[in-house]
């Protein structure tokens, strides 16, 4: 199973939706809460190619984007392949 990392904040509806999709698929993930953590958010932004919004999701170190991007991968039938890598 691939390593999944997700940068979040507690009240973000997109974060909640992304985590719900991952849980539905039975995927465990490492969550990093960047609320109130300027250094953590700066690290996330750098790692995500300048994207500052949450969530930012990485699968095996590869940036896949945010919640909409994750759901688009699922809709296209490509998410399972990434998660099995």
Q: Total strand count, please?
A: 4
General shape: globular
Can you tell me the CATH class?
Alpha Beta
Count of spatially separate domains: 1
Instruction: Report Rg.
Output: 12 Å
What's the story with the biggest beta sheet?
4 strands, mixed
Q: What is the name of the CATH topology?
A: Glutaredoxin
The spatial strand order of the largest sheet comes to: 2-1-3-4
**CATH H level, superfamily name:** Glutaredoxin
* Percent of residues in helices: 40-55%
Report mean pLDDT, rounded to a whole number: 97
**Which structural class is indicated by helix and strand composition?**
alpha+beta
Second CATH tier, the architecture: 3-Layer(aba) Sandwich
N-to-C series of helices and strands = EHEHEEHH
Q: What's the helix count? A: 4
Q: Name the poorly predicted regions.
A: none
Task: Estimate what percentage of residues fall within beta strands.
Answer: 15-25%
The rounded distance between the terminal residues' Cα atoms is: 6 Å
Function: Has a glutathione-disulfide oxidoreductase activity in the presence of NADPH and glutathione reductase. Reduces low molecular weight disulfides and proteins.
Keywords: Cytoplasm, Disulfide bond, Electron transport, Redox-active center, Transport
Family: Belongs to the glutaredoxin family.
GO molecular function: glutathione disulfide oxidoreductase activity; protein-disulfide reductase activity
């Amino acid at each position: 199973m691939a390593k999944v990392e997700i940068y979040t904040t507690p009240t973000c509806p997109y974060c909640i939706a992304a985590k719900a999709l991952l849980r539905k698929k039975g995927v465990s993930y490492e969550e990093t809460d960047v609320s109130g953590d300027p250094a953590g958010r700066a690290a996330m932004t750098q790692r995500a190619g300048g994207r500052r919004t949450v969530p930012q999701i990485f699968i095996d170190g590869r940036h896949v984007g945010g919640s909409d991007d994750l759901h688009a991968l699922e809709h296209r039938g490509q998410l399972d392949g990434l998660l099995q890598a």
